Amino acid sequence: MSHWWQGYPWRMVQTNLREIDMADIDAETYAQQLADFGATVVTLNAGGIIASYPTRLDCQTQSPYLTGSSLRQIIDACHARGIRVIARMDFSKLRLPVYEKHPDWAYRDKDGQIVNYNGNVQTCPNGAYQKEKALEILREVLTTHPFDGVFCNMAGFLVVDYSGVYHGPCHCENCRRLFREQYGLEIPERDDPKNPDYKKYAAFKSACMKAQKQHLVETVRAVSPEIAINGVDYIRTESGAEINVPLWPYSASSNARQSAGPLRRRPADNASVDFMGFRYRESSVSASLLALRQWQNLANAGSVSLYIMGHLGNHKDQTALAASRPAFAFHQAHEALFAGLQSAARVLLVRRPVMARTDPEGYGWVRVLTESHVPFDEVKLPELTPELLTRYGTVLLPDVKQLASAQAAMLDGFAQNGGTVVATGAARGLACLGAEVTGCETGLMSTVFALTPEDEAAFPRSRAAHFIVPGDTLYTVRWSAAAKTCLRLVPEHPFGPPELCYCTETDDTPALGVTPYGQGRGVYIPWLAGSFYYREGFDNTLHFLQDVLFALCELPQLAPGLTPMVELTLCQKPGQLVVQFVNGSGVWGNSCFAPLPVQNITLRLPGVRAAKAAALRGGQTACRITGNNTILTLNVLNEYEAIVLEK
């Protein structure tokens, strides 16, 4: 049975309605503005903290501003224009009067205090409100309004408020009792992965949220199987900004890749967040950044998504709307092309679960692959399957510290059958790597690796540098006899004063090892190469990793003459190959400006024999077949281009 969201042309506008917006909202105007913008899906506030409709339940607060069009009228007006409507629910907080009647529903810090933010009290996933009352609210919303989907905002064990204040793990009586019953322990006072009990607490939280999600799914499915559920039927993520947080320029690309998956069987709703951060919700980030995110969404997931405060008719700062329209219009004009597209990448980047919001090793590899024009997919470690691996020739594991035995066997089998596994950092349990991690050195200051004469042919880009800098962390390794190791370590040595800045010794510690394994091989780099590149950005690291990819792993170079500031993706459907370019040349430090035009691009596509090519955004393109390759040219790239090759 197919569902409405499968193959649906996903152009989302999330309108986070303030409570006052319901006072004068006009359903027909609201819906028509969405239609004029090209939206096919909208997310709007329904219930939880505030009920945007007349509720019969006393566990949520009804909005006092319901004098404009009703929620039902808004939904009907959207449906009349072919726009699907998703209910935004938020069970993370309660209004203070509701809390005062049910204090056991609240989160408590280690001192037993609640978090009261502007009269909204944070709740706990193990309290009766989230476990029981939230499901009652869902049933009421979905049985009284014809919503097409559900998105539950800020789900989980929240420890930070809107001001960025850290409050720590929940210590409410429900959490403490359940954790004692399951583990015989007290809840840690802080989120500290170094605490030996913290892994158990993390597992406890994960199990609680898994059970909560299952109950939510059962509740929604009982109402209708045609209601799309975020995290199940579609995946919502955000590319946003926050004050004092550095720009991650590939946020939308990476989020979209992970959410859509290589087969794109589910919609990826990566919301480009309009505002600068929680404190400046009225003010938009730069127009060029908003445009860049939408083109990245399109190139990596075939969908576009915008998130604003208020609605299209009363959003004062028009920056996001003007910047996002071109990508929405392009997707609308080429719906048929994007329907059914799948990735054509042959490289897979496996992302490990992380407790923090950043993954420097993963981010570094995203940069290296993107800036080397290597098309790749991303998958979260729990979603890795043997069937998925058959699509790829190379799999990258950036500091994937923990592998289940079944996952290790899967990856060893991939190498046994001819694949290449590349791992960095604390890789353990993989026979194909030919390496046993025995320890870890941290705090290194001046350690480097030096190329030997035997290394120079395999590391042509690094030859001129001679030394490769690993950063401050190095894992000690016992290598198998089959491993061929490269480079040699120059140990800690003086770096001041200048007269003493030399070292006259090296040892046998290598920078990496390559181990034949069945028909394939394992490549292990026992340091955090991706993290060092993400933090510092030097071509010393980039060139070394490009040598690993192109010389050792023998990946084809598709565009060696193209600036690293252009992102390249390859997608396919029967009879067609779609090449997409995203111009990131406007990113400079923490700013994003209009990109510079890139002239005269040449692309070599091995194994492709294309009869003709057409550029869809005004570029002039041509292709010719040379042997078993297609040589593709594009005269100029502005913000974005999509080229369709007929095979």
From TrEMBL:
<dbReference type="InterPro" id="IPR028212">
    <property type="entry name" value="GHL6"/>
</dbReference>
<protein>
    <recommendedName>
        <fullName>Beta-galactosidase trimerisation domain-containing protein</fullName>
    </recommendedName>
</protein>
<dbReference type="InterPro" id="IPR029062">
    <property type="entry name" value="Class_I_gatase-like"/>
</dbReference>
<dbReference type="Pfam" id="PF14871">
    <property type="entry name" value="GHL6"/>
</dbReference>
<dbReference type="InterPro" id="IPR017853">
    <property type="entry name" value="GH"/>
</dbReference>
